[in-house]
Amino acid sequence: MLRTPSLRKRMACWLYEGMLLFGVVFIAGYLFGTLSQTKHAMNNRHGLQAFLFLVFAIYFTWLWSKGQTLAMKTWHIRILDKDGLPVSQARALARYALSWVWFLPPMVIAWPFNLPAAEVAVLVFGWVLVWALLSRFQSRRQYWHDVWAGTQLVDVQKKP
Fold first, then answer.
1. Deepest of 27, 91, 103, 109, by most Cβ within 10 A of its Cβ?
2. pLDDT score of 1 more than 90
3. Are 83 and 151 in contact (CB under 8 A)?
4. What are phi and psi of 141, to 5 degrees?
5. For the chain, what is the HEC assignment?
6. What's the per-residue H, E or C state across 75-118?
7. How does 38-72 read in b/e, with b if 16+ C-beta sit within 10 Å?
């Protein structure tokens, strides 16, 4: 039987993934700035955001279709489809699109109010906490975007 990693383990992996993405953002941002000859960070901001969205899509789709990102490998978590088979690139891309549920709702709520960055950060953090805890109401304790994408996170740590 495939075992779902604990919420604590999945969130630790999620935070570590976020730290690793700083490197991806740095390289992608440098490449975008160089190719577009952007002189100031606020110029062409929407272009950079779209480019990063695409880079993240490629990063996650490719690594999830291989089974793990570096953070997932570190925390002994693997992604499989609902039948326990490796995830296809199409399913990985669907999971990527659905995983934006982690961030989009608070950002959409904050947008019309033109809130300062600190308040948006509080909204995002609060929603991330709520979204993570909602997995407790799913029968296998998977995140809901995994259920919708037909994927599952499994614990692959070898027992001593």
1. 91
2. no
3. no
4. 65, 30
5. CCCCCCHHHHHHHHHHHHHHHHHHHHHHHHHHHHHHCCCCCCCCHHHHHHHHHHHHHHHHHHHHHHCCCHHHHHCCEEEEECCCCECCHHHHHHHHHHHHHHCHHHHHHHHHHCCCHHHHHHHHHHHHHHHHHHHHHCCCCCCHHHHHHCEEEEECCCCC
6. CCEEEEECCCCECCHHHHHHHHHHHHHHCHHHHHHHHHHCCCHH
7. beeeeebeeebeebbeebbeebbbebbbebbbebb
pLDDT, tens digit (0-9, with 9 covering 90-100), for 81-112:
999 999 999 999 999 999 999 899 998 989 89
Whether the Cβ atoms of residue 149 and residue 82 lie closer than 8 Å to each other: no
pLDDT in tens, 147-160: 999 999 999 987 76
* In the block, residue with structure tokens 């690139």: 89
Best CA proximity match to 145, nearest among 105, 99, 112:
99
